[in-house]
Each structure stands twice: as C-alpha cells, then as structure tokens.
Specification:
Blueprint: E1 9-11, E2 16-19, E3 25-28, H1 45-49, E4 65-66, E5 100-101, H2 132-140, H3 159-175, H4 180-185, H5 191-194, H6 202-213, E6 216-218, H7 221-224, H8 229-236, E7 246-247, E8 257-259, H9 267-270, H10 275-297, H11 299-306, H12 308-311, E9 330-335, E10 348-352, E11 358-365, H13 372-406, E12 414-417, H14 427-437, E13 443-450, H15 453-472, H16 484-497, H17 506-523, E14 530-537, H18 540-550, E15 561-562, E16 566-567, E17 570-571, H19 588-618, H20 627-650, H21 657-683, H22 697-718, H23 720-729, H24 736-742, H25 750-767, H26 774-795, H27 806-832, E18 839-845, E19 852-860, E20 863-871, E21 876-880, H28 907-939, H29 955-958, E22 966-967, E23 976-977, H30 1004-1012, E24 1026-1029
Antiparallel strand pairs: 1-2, 2-3, 4-5, 6-7, 6-8, 9-11, 10-11, 12-14, 12-17, 13-14, 13-24, 15-16, 18-21, 19-20, 22-23
Length: 1035
C-alpha cells in the first residue's frame, strides 16, 4: 500500500463502492452518505444514465476524490478525515460542500491508489438539462442548410500532434525510470486511439459548450429533488442563510453536474466563481435596493412637480417625464438686452417700436420649483443615497470576508516571492528554507517561474501555426511534426500548383515554421533567471504566519534571510487563474511607461465621442439634431468602447488580472461617465434643463435610460456574434478543435460590468433633483442589468478568471465616493439654477415709446400660438443673466455669486441653496480626507491583513489548485502549459481538464523536446519554469 488502504468493501459516500478484491472496480450502492453524512435514497434515474456502472481504477485520471465525509468516516489505516475538516461545521453553520482530494505524486499501482469515480457521458444529457441553443442545434443538425458538412472521414486536427506527443511523453517516461507501458497508463489517448479517425461532431461541440464553457455545479439528487418554487425564490433572495451548491470543475466527468439556474441561483453561490464576480453582483443588488429607497423618499417631489401647484399638471408631457421639473407654464416679458446671441431661438422674439428701434420679449418660466418642500425632500434623498453608499461599502467589506470563508482556494495557502535570487531554481531549496524557518510548516507545492517569455511565446506561435497548417491541408493528408520532410514535399507541390495567392498559404506557413523552430532550438538551450516563486503551504495558519512575519514594519532578523543575505519581498498572490504569467518578468518602470499611450488614446476617443454626441443632439447646418439619435449614439459607443479598451489594455503590462480590470475600469469610467452624463449636461443650454419637448434635456435623459434598458440589454441577450459562431460557423468548421473554439463564449471583463453600473448611478445622481423618478428608472435599469448579467454569466459568457477583490475595493472606496460627491454637487447647482430662464428683473420701468400692446406668433411644441402682450408703465423690466453657476466654474453654489443687481433667486431659494452649498463643501472635505488617507496607505509599505477565519482545512483536502504557468491561445480551446507536467501527473493541481486529451497534449516542454529531437541538443535544465508537489505528512 502507498498512502492509504481500503478494506475489502469501503463505502465512499458518493453512491459508489470499491471492491479491493475485484481489481479496484467501482460499483453503485443503494445507500450513500450525503453532504452531512446521512443516508439517503438510491441513485435516481438521471444519475444512472449519466454514470457508468463499473470504471476500472487504472483508467481514471483522478486521485481519490469524493464529497465531504462525516466526522466518523475513517480509512482502514486509521487516517481520520475529520482532522482534515476540523471546525468546518462549528456553531451549527453548515460547511460548504467540498471535495476531498488525495494527491499521490508517484504512485503507479492501481491497487494502491483506488480511484472510485463515475464517468459522465456528455452526449447523453437529458433534454431538460440542455440549453435552448443546444436543443435547437440538435434538432437542426440533420438539415444540410444548417449543417452542410459531410462529417464522414473528417480528421480531427489534433490526431497527429497527439500521436507525436504521446510518443515523446513515453520516451521521457523511460528516461525517468518508468516503462513505456506504465507511462501510457496515464495518458488519455494511447497511440492506438490516436491512430483512429475522429469525426468532427457538432454534438460534441455543444457538449463542450455546456460542460466546459458554461459553469456547472455538482448535483446531489437527494438534496435537490422536490424543491418548490417558493424555496427557490427564497434561496435567490437569501431568505435562507445557506444554499448548498458546489461549483464543478470545468469538464467535470466524475460527478453528475447541472447547469446553474440563471434566475434562482443565489449570489453567494455565484461567488464561488471568484470573489470579484460575487462582490460585483452583491454590489449591483445593493445599489438597486438603495436607488429604490431613494426613489420612495422622492415621491413627494414627483407628486408636487406633476400636480397643479407647480405646472398645471404638466399638460403635453409624456407619462415617463411627469413628476419631473419640466415647466409648461410661461409668460412673455419685455427684456432689455435679450437676443438670439444669448437665448435660444424659441425663447426670444424681437419687435420694432414706433421709432423703428428693436426691443425684445423673452419667455419666462413661472413654475416655482425651488421651495422648501422640494429642496428638503431632495436633500434627504441625496444624503440617504450617500449614507447608503457608505453602508454598502461597509457591508461589501463584510461580504468579502464571508465570500472568502465560503471558498477555499490556492490563495488561502500561498505566498509569492517577488525578488528571489536569480539562480534559485531548485524547488527543494525553497521548501527547505520555509520548513526550517517556520516550525511545523509543510510546503505542499512550489512553482519557480523563470524569465523565458520569448521561448514560450515562440512555442505558442509554433503550436498555432501547426494548427493553421492542419486546417488548410486537404482531407487524407496527415500532419506529423516529427516528419517534416513529408510536409516540405507537399508544400513544394502546393506552391507549384498555386502560383498566385493573395493570402499566405501552406508554403509560407512552412517557411515560417522552419524559422520558429530554429529560434526554439537556440532559446531552449539557455538557462533563464528566476523572477518569481510561488509557495503553497499545507494549511492556512502557516501562510498567515509567514506573511505576518515577512511583512513586519521592522526587520524580522537574519533568521529569515534567504541564504543568509537576502530579506525576501513576500506577498499574498492572486488566484492561479488570475496570474498573468507572460507579464511577470517586467519591472515597474516598464509597466508605468506602457500605461501612458493607452490612456492618452482613451482621452482622445472620449473627446471624439463627445463631439459626435454633440453634433447628433444639437445638429449642424441643415440637420436639426435629435436627442434620441444622441442617446442611441451614447449606447452604441458604450457598447463598442469596451472592445477598444480591452485592446488598449492588452498593450499594457500587469502582474494579475485585477490590475488589468482596474486599468480597464478607469478607461471605461472616463469614457462612459463623460459620454453618458457629462457631455449631455454641458452641451444642453441652461434654459433647456426643464423645458418640455424632445429637444430638451430631460427628454434626452429619459432616452438614455430607455436605451440602456432596451437596446443594451437586447444586444447582450441576443449575443449576435457568439450565436453566429455557435450556429453558423461551428457546423461549418473543418475540425473538432475548431468547433470547440467557436463554442468558447464571449470573454467579458469585470471592469465593463462595473462601469455599466456606475454610469447609471452617475446619470441618476446628476439629474435626480429635477427628475426624481430617475431613481426608479435607474433602479429598474440596474435590476434588469443584474439578471441579464446573471443569465449571460451562466449561459453565454466564457469562464472568467477568479478575480480577487481589487476592483471591488477601488469601486467602493473611490468611485462610490466620486458618485456621492458629484450627486450632491450637481443637486446644489440644480437648485441654484432655478428658474432656468436666464432672466433677472431689476427696478426700472418702461417709458415712452415702449409702452403699448404687441402681438406675435410663436411655435409651441410643433404648433403656432398667438401671443399678445401689454406693456405699461408698471411692467417689470428684465435683463439677461447667466443662471448656470456650474458652467461659470463657481464653487460652491452660493447665492452671493449672483451678479450685482441681477438676482434671480427668491429669498427662500437663497436660504435653501446656501444650506445645500455648505453641505456640499462638508461632503467634499470628508471625501478628500478619506481619499488622501487611502492613497497614503496604498503608497506606504504594504501590510498583510488576513481576511476571514482560518478554516483549518488542509490544502490536500481542499480541492484547491496549484500555481501552474499557463498561456491562453486563440487556436487551442485549453491553456498551453509552460512547465513539465510529469511531476503533476497523479495530482489534482489543474483547474481544468480536457475530456479528450491528457495534460501532456498541452505541455509546451514536449514541443521543445520535439523540435530538438534528433539534433543532439537537449532542453536546458532551467529553460522552463518548474512546479513540484509534495505529499502532506499524514499521521
């Protein structure tokens, strides 16, 4: 026996049993242990259909893996599993369901390492468990117009490459002391299997989409059956404290799984995808509730503005804008210096007096909006909204801890050394250092990262080029990387037959392949310096001790010097899937310099978009312009710019995905805030702010809300590009691998989702004072956004990296603060700007020839209106005055900034705006202090602070994954691995699994060996990063 032994018949708690006397076969049992160790009913029919009855342990790729054991379950050799899960279920808080994974690095005996797993056939999913897209595809694939390709004889693109890698891996195993037969046991595709012709199957492609691309959870029939609709709703709304759903590994083949329900899946379970996405959805939900509460507070203003006291029930105003500050009551008054140069054309008209001199009449608003009841109501709603943002920020910090407690990931056990000695390549040296310096420490995994970016990039490019050549080869012509002469001969013949080509073909690809392989031969023989080291401990306690000691403000002492002369810079790393391995070698100066150009381009595009919106809204030459056109342009720009921002951010360098998302967030927030809100506010004349009709401000604001709710949501749900890929291009793909690539889903950035939320918050905050119903429209828009994002996340988007809390913290510390400050500032200016007609009275009266009766015709909402005005010696004279203190850059909006002798505010309005203005100053001062304090902490020496409690779960039992250097490629459906996988073969250290290939197929070190084969040269010992795993010392 190696590490564990089983009795002759050992129950595993998952509905299966190993019979040690029958070669380790697995069979179903009637009673099984559930998550809490209770006995349940037999497997249901779905479980029986989705699992094989007997699976030999020798063919399993997994080490012993199962659901959570009860505290009484023990193995035969007295290994008590309760030690691995101590304190998980204390205080009557049910533990999150976890898999226990026993990693055996070097075991080769199937008898010693039983692997009791089920094998799920993805092609036999029940129709009720399929997406609608898959059902449609399966129904239509029999028709030529949908699936025109004759799949018979179509060769999978990976057959020959897999065969070559299988032979290479087998040769490597011999050199490592294993026989080829033993080595072949661990490879999914044997040489005989690789020699078979594999048909490109659309059924497999859709199975890949649902089981690899889309997130799934491990399905437990006994706990899931007979759930009522009310129970599902209560779970979704968190009325129940705990919901039991365990996220399944991508491509999970060994447990029955189901797709998450887009409507009823609680946010707490979605947080298993990563802290970042869980905190985003929690933020979105909280903001929806806050906006709705602020809307309820604003109902008195809605009633006042829509009533008879303000504007005679606002006749002619659409219902969506009733209750806003739109004023439909006006009077024409004589104005001494008004003209078309300072007032809009529909608000001024000039007349000639008896002496042939011109004088003007201007339209004056008679609605009294800045009164105590409206200002105080908005004041309360604004302060409640700001206070609510503070409460949300605090609750999010607590949710961050709770979500972190719900997850057990590699980050909880790991540290990263940013400044290791460049020659410290040996993982054993790092293991010995930490285990000798910290009593009781056990290093489970060590990843030594070297600066071989150019080599890895070249190998990835070679792999992509081979796949490109494979796609262009006709059927029946095989591609064997170990037999380049055959390809060279075919390339020459191809070149002779097709002398003229617009695009590069096989001859050009072959020439490039030769150059790439020459480069690889040179680069593979070098030893590269170490740039980072990731250490994963067996328990959280050790990780926290190391981080606390190595991040002290004072020097911890020579005891903790590496090799006696170096104090290491130790940090807590991001999650493995969030590490950007290709950027780890860059220094901070290079990183900063590469941030400048993308930011400048963002500023230029923001200005260009603002100009386009202005032209569409205000018009040019003979084009009159319309707010709806501008609103559509804003929504389309907000939809397209994330793709541009992503391309710009790809030019930058970031250590982790959190940095990428932060950079994108800043770009997107700048563009969307300016494009959606600030431009609309600045280009609109002050007198148009409360005007009625489609050319005025609030009509445009409503159009933006409508566009965000309808157009943006529709574009996201329809997902035209991805549906074209899945339903048009995938059926016409030449190879199976190409089909998988079309099924990968749309890659979405968390920063994009955050800015979609904050732009609605900014739009609502800026105009809530004069459009109180904006709180309700904003809440509804974000509510729709919440469920649209949940649907996309669980049904269409590609898997996101496990984002950490970085972007959430930036959002709640800085962006929430900016939103709150901008809201109260704009509200202050809004009340100071009443009555929005730019007219001020003064104590002079008309005399002489100006006195008389005047009649003229004006246009009013598309119809002509006859106006008659009597000017007497008692008529009040008006003059033009600029009531827009915001555009005049006056702060705060105090009544004292009115022009001398030209006052438009009433005495009541002056008192109210003064209170609002000084409150604005107070809020701004508090915001500046908090910002300065936060910046001071971020620029000071980083301090480690543990989040959540130590759950006392060992790394080997947590199901967490290791830090394995991987690189994504658009040509391969799975990441390419930039280290040797031979040390990781028997361990569950990867966070993904291909149902058709072993990890050997994605091992770039095998590609390098393949290139060097027959040359007499060998890959240098330190040409690639190395990962090593050590078994924990079980008692």
């Amino acid at each position: 026996m190696d590490e564990f032994s089983l009795s002759e018949s050992q129950t595993l708690g998952t509905g299966f049993v190993i019979d040690a006397n029958d070669g380790g076969s697995v069979s179903q049992i009637t009673d099984r242990n559930t998550y809490g160790g209770d006995s349940g009913s037999s497997l249901n029919e779905t479980d029986k259909q989705n699992s094989t009855n007997v699976t030999p342990a020798t063919s399993s790729k997994r080490s012993l893996q199962r659901k959570e054991f009860s505290n009484e379950d023990k193995f035969e050799d007295n290994v008590n599993l309760s030690k691995l899960y101590s304190d998980v279920g204390k205080d009557n808080v049910p533990a999150r369901p976890r898999r226990i994974v026993f990693r055996n690095q070097s075991s080769t005996s199937s008898q010693d390492t039983p692997k009791p797993v089920t094998t799920v056939d993805f092609l036999k999913d029940h129709p009720s468990e399929m997406t609608n897209g898959r059902k449609i595809a399966l129904a239509l694939m029999k028709y030529k117009w949908y699936n025109p390709k004759d799949v018979s004889g179509t060769v999978s693109s990976n057959v020959d490459s897999t065969r070559a890698i299988t032979r290479l891996a087998s040769a490597r195993a011999v050199s490592d002391g294993e026989s080829p037969d033993e080595r072949e046991e661990n490879i999914v595709e044997t040489t005989e299997e690789s020699d078979e012709i594999e048909e490109a199957s659309l059924e497999k492609a859709w199975a890949y989409f649902e089981h690899v691309t889309l997130p799934r959870y491990v399905y437990d029939a006994e706990r899931s059956n007979n759930k009522s609709l009310l129970s599902k709703i209560s779970n979704c709304l968190h009325w129940k404290k705990y919901v039991n759903m365990e996220v399944a590994e991508s491509g999970e083949m060994h447990f029955a799984t189901k797709l998450y329900n887009p409507l009823f899946t609680p946010i707490r379970d979605i947080a298993d995808f990563g802290l970042g996405i869980g905190l985003y959805l929690a933020t979105l939900k909280s903001v929806v509730i806050l906006m709705f509460i602020a809307g309820l507070i604003s109902i008195p203003n809605i009633l006042y503005f829509s009533g008879s006291d303000y504007s005679a029930n606002q006749p002619g105003v659409i219902w969506q804008l009733k209750g806003s500050a739109i004023c439909t009551e006006h009077e024409w008054v004589p104005c001494l210096d008004c003209g078309r140069d300072n007032l809009e054309g529909d608000r001024v008209i000039s007349e000639m007096d008896q002496n042939g001199e011109f004088f003007s009449f201007a339209k004056r608003n008679t609605c009294d909006g800045a009164i105590a009841r409206t200002v105080w109501t908005n004041y309360a709603a604004t302060l409640v909204f700001i206070l609510g943002l503070v409460i949300i920020s605090y609750r999010l910090s607590k949710k961050e801890e709770r979500f972190d407690d719900d997850q057990q990931t590699a980050q909880d056990y790991s540290i990263v050394i940013r400044d290791p000695p460049i020659n410290a390549h040996d993982p054993e040296e790092w293991k010995d250092f930490f285990q000798s310096k910290f009593d009781g420490a056990h290093v489970s995994c060590c990843t030594v990262v070297v600066e071989n970016d150019e080599l890895v990039k070249t190998l990835v490019e070679r792999r992509e080029l081979l796949l490109k050549i494979r796609r262009e080869l006709p059927q029946g012509v095989s591609l064997d990387p170990e037999n380049p002469e055959k390809l060279a001969t075919y390339a020459d013949e191809y070149k002779k037959e097709k002398k003229c080509r617009i695009f590069n073909g096989i001859p050009e690809h072959y020439e490039k392949l030769i150059k790439l392989e020459d480069t690889i031969k040179k680069l593979s023989g070098k030893d590269y310096p170490v740039i980072s080291v990731f250490i994963t401990f067996e328990n959280e306690r050790t990780q926290r001790r190391v981080l606390s000691m190595m991040n002290k403000a004072t020097n911890p002492g020579p005891k903790y010097y590496f090799n006696g002369d170096r104090l290491l810079r130790v940090e807590e790393p991001a999650e493995p899937s969030s590490i950007r391995w290709k950027d780890l070698s860059e220094n901070r100066y290079t990183i900063l310099t590469k941030l400048i150009i993308p930011f400048l381009v963002t500023v230029a595009l923001t200005i260009a978009s603002a100009l386009i919106v202005r032209l569409l809204r205000n018009g040019w030459n003979t084009y009159p312009g319309k707010p709806m056109y501008a609103a559509i342009a804003i929504s389309v720009g907000n939809f397209i710019f994330p793709m541009i921002a992503k391309a710009l951010t790809d030019l930058e360098i970031h250590y982790k995905e959190g940095g990428v998302q932060t950079s994108m967030y800043i770009k997107l927030a700048l563009f969307r805030w300016v494009n959606t809100t600030i431009v609309t506010h600045l280009i609109q004349p002050h007198t148009s702010k409360i005007g009625a009709g489609e050319d005025h401000l609030l009509q445009g604001v409503y159009a933006i809300f409508l566009s965000e709710i309808v157009i943006v949501t529709s574009l996201q749900l329809v997902d035209i590009i991805q549906n074209l890929k899945r339903h048009f291009f995938a059926p016409r793909a030449k190879t199976q691998e190409d089909m998988y690539l079309y099924m990968r889903g749309n890659e979405v950035d968390l920063a994009d989702q955050y800015t979609k939320m904050t732009k609605i918050m900014v739009l609502t905050g800026w105009y809530a004072s004069i459009y109180p119903a904006a709180f309700f429209f904003g809440a509804f828009a974000l509510f729709v956004n919440l469920y649209t994002d949940k649907f996309s996340l669980l049904r269409t988007w590609a898997p996101m990296p496990r984002f950490d809390q970085t972007i959430s913290r930036i959002n709640r510390i800085y962006f929430f603060m900016a939103i709150g400050v901008s809201m109260i500032v704009l509200s202050s200016y809004s009340w100071a700007g009443f009555s929005y007609d730019n007219l001020c009275s003064f104590d002079e009266y008309f005399e002489g020839n100006f006195i008389g009766t005047y009649s003229f015709t004006v246009e009013n909402n598309g119809s002509e209106e006859n106006i008659m005005i009597d000017v007497t010696d008692e008529s009040v004279m008006y003059r033009y005055c600029d009531q827009n203190l915001f555009r005049n850059f006056v702060f705060p909006a105090l009544p004292s900034f009115q022009q001398m002798g030209l006052k438009w505010m009433t005495s009541e309005q002056e008192n109210l705006t003064q209170i609002f203005a000084w409150t604005t100053v107070g809020v701004l001062v508090i915001a500046c202090v908090v910002t300065a304090y936060s910046f001071g902490l971020s620029f000071g020496r980083e301090r480690y602070k543990a989040i959540g409690k130590d759950k006392k779960i060992q790394f080997s039992a947590s199901g967490a994954y290791a830090y394995i250097p991987q690189f994504k490629s658009d040509a391969v459906p799975y990441p390419l691995i930039a280290c040797s996988v031979k040390q990781l073969r028997h361990s569950e250290l990867f966070n993904w699994e291909s149902p058709y290939h072993s990890h050997d197929y994605f091992d770039l070190t095998l590609d390098a060996e393949q290139v060097l084969k027959g040359t007499g040269d060998h890959v240098a010992d330190n040409a690639f990063s190395s990962v090593r795993y050590w078994e924990p010392p079980f008692e």
